[in-house]
Amino acid sequence: MKFIKILLILSVFLSCTTEDDFVPFQVEQVFSDNLDKVIKVDIIYVQSSSGHCSYNLNETNFIHNLNGNFFHRYGIGLEKGVIKTIINDELYDLRDNRGQESSVFLTETQDSYDENRLSIYIIKRAHTVAIAGIGKDQRALITDEFLETTTVPHEIGHALGLFHYHEEGNIMGQIRPHMRKEFTNTQTDRMKNTITKIVGI
Ligand SMILES: [Zn+2]
After folding, report:
1. Ligand 1 center to residue 174 CA distance, Å?
2. From ligand 1's centre to the CA of 135, what distance in Å?
3. CA spacing 20 to 30 A to 6: which of 75, 97, 101, 124?
4. Which domains, ranges and CATH numbers included, belong to the chain?
């Protein structure tokens, strides 16, 4: 019983509802050749067994923009890894799992992610209720209409061990997502430590 309670709390904590995350954010892109930590990022498209939908993501640009907008300036580099598709009805349609999204996500992805990498799972927004993304244990889930928003670095932050941080402008904040642009030093260190654990160097 206690375990279920903890799971529920975790779900509320980790499922990030960001209804107003459609306002374009503005940050100057910064790129660096001098990175402290680099991690490969696998991109995994989730499809349903009853028919395929199309995802229109340019993965190279996606990773490039994440680096320029949010990560290189902190010495963290993301590298494009494997691009693949999985069929998983449970994940594709999270409507049946309201309040349990995070635990369902972690359970349903436990066999499809690489332990030495970060994995980003992409699903269609149309089949979820108010979930922009989820992130934990080196895995992030993003609904595809949020791929251009700060939901992505926010969920990557969760996937690399960060919790919410209630300060406007912080990427781990839950209010005014379009204002989110910064990580603190403590958050940066924590992500780097997590990367060291995941990558092994
Ligand atoms: Zn969050």
Report:
1. 6
2. 7
3. 124
4. 2-17+30-199 (3.40.390.10)
The pLDDT-based confidence of 52 (bands split at 50, 70, 90) is confident
Cα dihedral: 94, 135, 117, 148 (round 10): 80
Q: pLDDT tens for residues 182-200? A: 999 999 999 999 999 999 8
How many Å lie between the centroid of ligand 1 and the Cα of residue 80?
23
Considering the chain, what percentage of its residues have pLDDT values greater than 70?
Answer: 83
Q: How far is the CA of 4 from the centre of ligand 1 (A)?
A: 20
Tell me how far the alpha carbon of residue 120 lies from the centroid of ligand 1, in angstroms: 15
pLDDT given for residue 129 in this prediction: 58
pLDDT in the model for residue 20: 55
The amino acid at 44: I
Place of tokens 């993003």: 142
Inter-residue contact 55 to 122 (CB < 8 Å): yes
φ and ψ of 97, to 5 deg: -125, 35
Cα gap 29→12, rounded to integer Å: 32
